[in-house]
Task: inverse folding
């Protein structure tokens, strides 16, 4: 029986680990050990995701909490090294591009434990993103590379990775999305508003349609000038179509700090707290479009074939552009692009290969063979 | 760049860093040194810094004696705190130790450019912690100073040409050091007198893959014993290896002495007939001082030495070791070929840094 440690740290990891844990339930060849590094700062949110996604409680929680990049990476390394020495697993499987990903890979590599990186090979080619550094470092020392799309394979081959070590398995996020869409549809969709008193019931917005927004990248929300420009654009869009905006604490903090709250008080902007997974995917699945700067939603909208406007100069998930319904745009383009979508001229895409809900199955089958 | 932070921790890194420190001074670039504490022993005392004219570290993290993960983690924390305070224009790291990755990783996350000296070296053995450290550091470095053509070629194979980084072949700073210290070493060292030998083979064994397997170690000692019957073999030996020999009840026929400092090593290299080693650095130093080298490893980062016939890899195979000894006993080579930059490496690197 092979012993495999699966690592989760932050919110985007949970949706990727969930289908693997489900797939491994009752498996007689592989014994999974789930390690939560505790990198995610909000333990309540983390607990809620685990519950919603049916992830079993972690076998080990390192509880590192929030800290600077180096400090967090350091704490995870120190804690995870002890776990690896105690457990002596056959494999360590990491996902994504967070500090837990790089810290645990480095520890395992030094102990000569075979490492598997799921979501390997993604590149934004923008090294000012901490995630890009995490991706580069992790892929430089990983033994087996599980990728979500062919562009990732190509990136790895260009970096000298042996083809035999790369396995295109599809997208675990889509496994989770497929498994939960129905369940999400019956979840409560009433949320308290943050930009004025009252609440919003998403179901009442279905007739007119609405756009869903997420913004949290430092390049978009950390400078007053950029954020103010965005707020003005949102306000203009909201005159044409309602916007639902589950807001990241960082963005909320900056809106308040820069004195922009007044401008957010528009009747058609529905500013709400960040959501649980089920609420969020339901919100996205019923939206006319998504306006975002985050990673995962680019993939979810591609699978759902909902137009997505990504306000970033680059993306590490280009397959959502080549094949999917995603478009990279700059701030001045937001308005005209949104108008096009409202006119019914939004981008139509197709579902990339293996984004079919069966990725966990493929991964486990390969792990049994290697 | 006007202000550099250098992160070092292992003994050889101090010697490498000193070559650039001298050039920084000439170029008027401010340099602060962080000593992680990775190597911490009597050989790293005040005398070491004075004799080697190595600038004193501005910061001492005092981190040593831990497992790889814990050590690297603690270093990351310590280095980040200093970088946040000092805000340097660049962070300079050397070689392939835990101090190297900790410095590179801390800096890259703070968007401080990482300068890696000895970039691009590969043994292609991922079981070696150094190999992991090298690959990882290169991948997040912004300026990669390569000692050799082979190092540049390795980076090209890993796609570095398409990355937003600079690759510069500057040569090997250890050749700079060897040339700089050689006259001084001959003045200061009396190791030849101490050893009481004039014609000898110099051998070093320290790699865990050689010392921790009784069978491998026995093979190597047998081989060295046989060579010793033809020409005396002198082995500066680490106390750890010596105690392993005692435990295994192995009594070598050749002469063993306590570990030697850099100056003594230079003199031994200059005066020996042949070098046998499992160290990476000693393979090159043999070449700098015009000596053939037999390497007790299956791979080497210094492939150009093998390709040009200066070095033979024998692993721990007694027959191969004896064959290589036969080959080199009668071989005369020209050591003038320029493989490592002939002592200009630090100057080229600092000149590049000053232009960034």
Result:
């Amino acid at each position: 029986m092979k012993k495999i440690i699966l690592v989760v740290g932050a919110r985007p990891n949970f949706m990727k680990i969930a289908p693997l844990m489900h797939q491994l339930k009752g498996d007689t060849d592989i014994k999974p050990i789930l390690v939560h590094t505790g990198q995610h700062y909000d333990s309540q949110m983390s607990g809620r995701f685990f519950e919603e996604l049916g992830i079993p409680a972690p076998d080990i929680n390192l509880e590192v909490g929030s800290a600077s990049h180096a400090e967090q990476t350091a704490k995870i390394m120190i804690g995870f090294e002890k776990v690896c020495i105690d457990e002596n697993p056959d494999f360590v499987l990491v996902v994504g591009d967070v500090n837990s990903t790089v810290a645990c890979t480095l520890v395992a590599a030094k102990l000569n434990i075979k490492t598997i990186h799921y979501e390997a090979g993604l590149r934004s080619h923008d090294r000012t993103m901490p995630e890009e550094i995490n991706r580069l470092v992790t892929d430089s020392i990983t033994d087996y590379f599980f990728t979500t799309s062919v562009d990732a394979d190509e990136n790895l081959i260009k970096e000298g990775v042996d083809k035999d070590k790369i396995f295109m398995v599809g997208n675990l996020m889509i496994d989770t999305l497929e498994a939960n869409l129905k369940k999400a549809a019956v979840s409560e969709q009433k949320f308290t508003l943050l930009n004025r008193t009252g609440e919003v019931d998403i179901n009442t917005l279905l007739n007119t349609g609405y756009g869903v927004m997420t913004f949290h990248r430092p390049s978009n929300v950390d400078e007053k000038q950029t954020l103010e420009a965005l707020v003005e654009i949102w306000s203009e869009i909201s005159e044409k179509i309602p916007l639902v905006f589950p807001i990241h604490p960082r963005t909320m903090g900056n809106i308040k700090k820069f004195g922009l709250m007044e401008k957010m008080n528009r009747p058609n902007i529905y500013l709400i707290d960040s959501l649980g997974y089920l609420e969020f995917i339901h919100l996205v699945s019923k939206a006319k479009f998504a306006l975002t700067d985050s990673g995962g939603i680019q993939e979810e909208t591609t699978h759902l074939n909902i137009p997505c406007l990504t306000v970033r100069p680059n993306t590490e998930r280009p397959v959502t552009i080549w094949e999917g319904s995603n478009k990279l745009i700059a701030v001045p383009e937001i308005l005209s692009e949104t108008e096009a979508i409202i006119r019914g001229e939004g981008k139509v895409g197709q579902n990339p290969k293996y984004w079919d809900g069966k990725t966990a199955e493929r991964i486990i089958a390969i792990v049994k063979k290697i | 760049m006007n202000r550099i932070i250098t992160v070092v921790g292992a003994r050889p890194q101090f010697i490498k860093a000193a070559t650039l420190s001298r050039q920084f001074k000439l170029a008027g670039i401010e340099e602060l040194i962080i000593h992680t504490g990775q190597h911490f022993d009597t050989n790293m005392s005040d005398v070491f810094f004075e004799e080697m004219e190595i600038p004193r570290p501005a910061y001492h993290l005092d981190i040593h004696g831990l497992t790889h993960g814990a050590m690297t983690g603690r270093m990351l924390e310590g280095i980040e705190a200093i970088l946040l305070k000092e805000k340097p224009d660049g962070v300079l790291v050397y070689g392939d130790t835990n101090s190297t990755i900790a410095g590179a990783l801390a800096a890259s996350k703070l968007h401080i450019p990482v300068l890696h000296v000895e970039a691009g070296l590969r043994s292609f053995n991922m079981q070696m912690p150094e190999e992991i450290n090298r690959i990882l550091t290169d991948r997040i470095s912004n300026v990669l100073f390569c000692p050799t053509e082979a190092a540049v070629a390795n980076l090209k194979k890993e796609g570095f040409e398409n990355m937003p980084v600079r690759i510069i072949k500057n040569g090997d700073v250890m050749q700079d050091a060897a040339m700089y210290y050689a006259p001084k070493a001959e003045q200061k060292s009396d190791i030849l007198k101490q050893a009481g030998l004039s014609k000898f083979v110099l051998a070093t064994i320290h790699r865990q893959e050689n010392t921790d397997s009784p069978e491998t170690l026995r093979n190597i000692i047998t081989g060295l014993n046989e060579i010793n019957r033809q020409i005396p073999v002198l082995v500066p030996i680490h106390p750890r290896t010596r105690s392993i020999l005692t435990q295994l009840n192995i009594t070598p026929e050749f002469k063993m002495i306590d570990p030697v400092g850099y100056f003594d090593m230079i003199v031994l290299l200059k005066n020996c007939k042949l070098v046998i080693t499992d160290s990476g650095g000693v393979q090159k130093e043999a070449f700098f001082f015009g000596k053939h080298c037999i390497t007790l490893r299956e791979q080497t980062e210094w492939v150009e030495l093998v390709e040009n016939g200066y070095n033979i890899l024998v692993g721990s195979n007694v027959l191969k070791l004896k064959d290589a000894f036969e080959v080199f006993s009668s071989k005369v080579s020209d050591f003038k070929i320029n493989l490592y930059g002939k002592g200009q490496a630090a100057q080229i690197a600092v000149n590049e840094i000053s232009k960034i």
User: Anything to note?
Assistant: The CA atoms of residues 16 and 275 of chain B lie 22 Å apart.
